[in-house]
Please model this.
Amino acid sequence: MHVYVHVPFCASKCRYCAFHSRAGAADRDFRDFVRLLPREIALRRSSGGASSRSLGTLDTLYVGGGTPSLLGPDRVFALLDGVLRLYPLRAPGAEVTVEANPADVTPALAAALSAAGVSRVSIGAQSFSERTLRWLGRRHGAAETREAVATLRAAGVPRISLDLIAAVPGEPRGSFAESLREAVALEPDHVSVYPLSIEPGTPLAREGVRPPADEESLAAVSLAEDYLGARGYARYELSNYARPGAECRHNRAVWLGEDYAGFGPAAHSRDGLERRANVPDFAAWRAALETGSAPPAAVESVSPEDDETERFLTRVRLARWSLPNPESPAGRRRAAVLAGLAREGIVRLASPSGGAADDSGGAAEPLWALTARGREVADSVMSALV
Ligand code: SF4
Model:
């Protein structure tokens, strides 16, 4: 089982951010969130619906947001403890990830994460240029990222991931390359690189900032792939790079189409044919749980065909993937589409007979991969396969 917890608080809003999080929350809000989260899990567990079926032991836990590290050492420990009491880890090696803002990482926070059994910390570094960090509205500097990595390592956190934002408009030429160099110098196990997107409703969108041109984003991603690839970080997903064995197992499971349960405001869940999206409203989430009700959510049941398509499409983001149910009508149609895309140099057969390197769950089916050109037009490939 894979569990995601959404912590809906940030100290301040970054100018590009479209995630659900509230800036300026009071201490009481943090306290209530940590107190009520186990209640949501218990209520969903006892509901008897699809949401309760798959609640068992955990393979991966991912605590994101928002800014989980903003809760501070005691509350982060209590949050993890509360979840892990209800969901024992399947094995000692199960993956527990917590996202952190570099500005929050103190020795006490790092010790709390380590004591709670956190195996990965994903740090929102975003850039090592002070100018870019200010432009993005980040509340930390590059020095704090370096310190955060050292502090987490000293506390014994096994794995570190760094997030970077590429193709920031107006960034001086070479600045992103320098951020890549600085990031790799910290020897993280994992690096995520996302080109900046201007989402509706964000401060950048309101200010009329234009999104980076496609060529700019593609050039930055290509630079990242070359630089990171030459230093031992394989591009195992369109935006994610890892040293061997250090892929994010939680996200990989989601991309492979596995079920997951999400808790907290705005968290999504997939369980069989059921899809649940908690309403992105902390006040409503708290009010419902205080009265013993499950938090408000949009719940729908999808058709088996839509379910299969959704689970398959995210696989295409991975380095190698197989076609599910190749003998079904949809499977045969997709095989024909892939053959056409292969002729155009958009996809390639990575392994005709499957094998141990299968990123899509170990099937003995042929493994496909996007080519370099295919990675540039991945969205169109997914549309063609629907
Ligand atoms: S820290 Fe993350 S979630 Fe919070 S405002 Fe910034 S980008 Fe959004």
Observations:
- The chain has a mean pLDDT of 93.
- The radius of gyration is 21 Å.
- Residues 2-255 form a domain with the pyruvate-formate lyase- activating enzyme fold (CATH 3.80.30.20).
- Residues 10, 13-14, 17, 19, 21, 65-67, 101, 124 surround iron/sulfur cluster (CB under 6 Å).
